[in-house]
Structure formats: structure tokens, C-alpha cells
Design goal:
- It comes from Litoreibacter ascidiaceicola.
- This is Lon N-terminal domain-containing protein.
- InterPro entries: Lon_prtase_N, Lon_prtase_N_sf, PUA-like_sf.
- The chain is an alpha+beta fold and about 220 residues long.
- It has 7 helices and 8 strands; from the N terminus they run E-E-H-E-E-E-E-E-E-H-H-H-H-H-H.
- It has helices at about 35-45, 135-150, 155-160, 165-175, 180-185, 190-205, 210-215; strands at about 10-15, 30-35, 50-55, 60, 65-70, 70-80, 90-105, 110-115.
- The strands form 2 sheets. Strands 1-3-6-7-8 form a 5-stranded mixed beta barrel. Strands 4-5 form a two-stranded antiparallel ribbon.
- Strand 7 and strand 8 (about 110-115) form a beta hairpin.
- Helix 4 crosses helix 6.
- The longest helix is centred in the last third of the chain and has 16 residues, at about 190-205.
- It starts with 11 loop residues before the first strand and ends with a helix.
């Protein structure tokens, strides 16, 4: 597992607003970069010592303009490959959540922000536990959810997976709306993230949306 210290975290990072793309600490997110501005962002990131990219959920402001949620999660580039036509396949390893303090204007074609890591120190520690986790009941609801959405998975692997890896991977992979992904990101603990995940699954199974509980 990739570990960093608070002192290693930069004050300013490039941010990648990608709806529905959720990164969580100690998890990994594959990215496919092909837009010129994000190719430039990636090439600039490789020149830094921290190799950090901040993943942020965008949302629409009152006038329809794209805004960024205040809280995102930064990942360190750990793997990448370049295709023959100049695209990049990148893997980010989730390091820590952050809070945007202000966007940084400049000559870059991509967005950058000054960020604060305060309040997310736990993200850089050991894997979290969820002592009240009912794996059997959770997997039963998850199986109904997957059937309803025509999704497939290796159920034997899920039965044996580490609790944090299981909950965080499903939070990242399940087809939830961006605002629902944001709620999963902002959950203060693994237990509350699991509770939020269960709520989203149950509302989906009832034919509703989780917005009723998240507003």
C-alpha cells in the first residue's frame, strides 16, 4: 500500500472534474486521458515529486455554470501507459481527501486549486474497520441490486474481500449519480460510508432515488 506523510502533500494541485468518477483513500482508480488539456495536465504532473491529481465532482451552479464540490480526493500516479495515438491509461492510488480553499488562475489549460488537507489525517493511516458490518446481509442486498441493474461480479471474491476494500470499491464502481458519489466520498468513516451505500442500494431497489434522503 502506498503511504505518504502530511508534510509530503502539496498546497496546490491540478484538479480533474469528472462526473461520477470517485476516488477514495487506499483505493485505485483507472483513468483514460485523451483531451488535450488533460494530456497537458498529466505531462505536467509527471514533472512533480508528488505526482498528485485531485479528483473532484463537478455540479451545476444556479446559473448553469460548472462548479466544483468543495471536497475531493487526491491520488498519486502509480502506473501509466501511452497508446500509439497519444492517449494515456493512468492508475491513481488514492492518498487523501482535501478541501478546496480557492481555485488558482493561471496559464494552464486545466484547473488547479489551493487545497487544505486538515481534517482528513485519518485517510493516510491504516485501513479502517467497520465492526458492525453484516457481510451476509449486505451481500444479499447487493446481489438484488446487481440483478436489478444487470451487473455481474465474482461473488466468491466479494465474500473474502477486506471490509474497507469491499465497501470502497463498491462505492466507486456502482452506478450511482454524481451527488450520491459525493455523499459516499464525504462520509466521515467507513461505517457511515457503508450505511450510505446501503441506503443508496435500498432506495434503488425500491425504485426511488437516494436524493430523497440526501437533500
Amino acid at each position: 500500500m502506498l503511504m505518504m506523510k502530511s508534510a509530503d502533500l502539496p498546497d496546490t494541485i491540478p484538479v480533474f472534474p469528472l462526473p461520477g468518477a470517485l476516488l477514495l483513500p487506499r483505493a485505485r482508480l483507472p483513468l483514460h486521458l485523451f483531451e488535450p488539456r488533460y494530456l497537458q495536465m498529466f505531462e505536467d504532473v509527471l514533472k512533480t515529486s508528488d505526482r498528485m491529481i485531485g479528483m473532484v465532482q463537478p455540479h451545476r451552479g444556479p446559473k448553469g455554470e460548472e462548479q466544483l464540490h468543495a471536497i475531493g480526493c487526491a491520488g498519486r500516479v502509480t502506473q501509466f501507459s501511452e497508446t500509439e495515438d497519444g492517449r494515456y491509461m493512468v492508475t491513481l492510488a488514492g492518498i487523501s481527501r482535501f478541501r478546496i480553499t480557492e481555485e488558482v488562475t493561471g496559464f494552464n489549460p486545466y484547473r488547479k486549486a489551493s487545497v487544505s488537507w486538515a481534517g482528513f489525517e485519518r485517510d493516510m493511516g491504516a485501513a479502517e474497520e467497520d465492526p458492525d458490518f453484516d457481510r451476509a446481509g449486505f451481500l444479499s442486498a447487493l446481489e438484488r441490486f446487481f440483478d436489478a441493474h444487470d451487473l455481474r461480479t465474482d461473488w466468491e471474491s466479494l465474500k473474502d474481500a477486506d471490509t474497507e476494500l469491499l465497501i470502497n470499491s463498491l462505492s466507486m464502481l456502482c452506478p450511482f449519480e454524481p451527488e450520491e458519489k459525493q455523499a459516499l466520498l464525504e462520509a466521515p468513516s467507513l461505517t457511515t460510508r457503508r450505511e450510505t451505500l446501503v441506503t443508496l442500494i435500498e432506495f434503488s431497489l425500491r425504485g426511488g432515488t437516494a436524493e430523497e434522503t440526501l437533500q
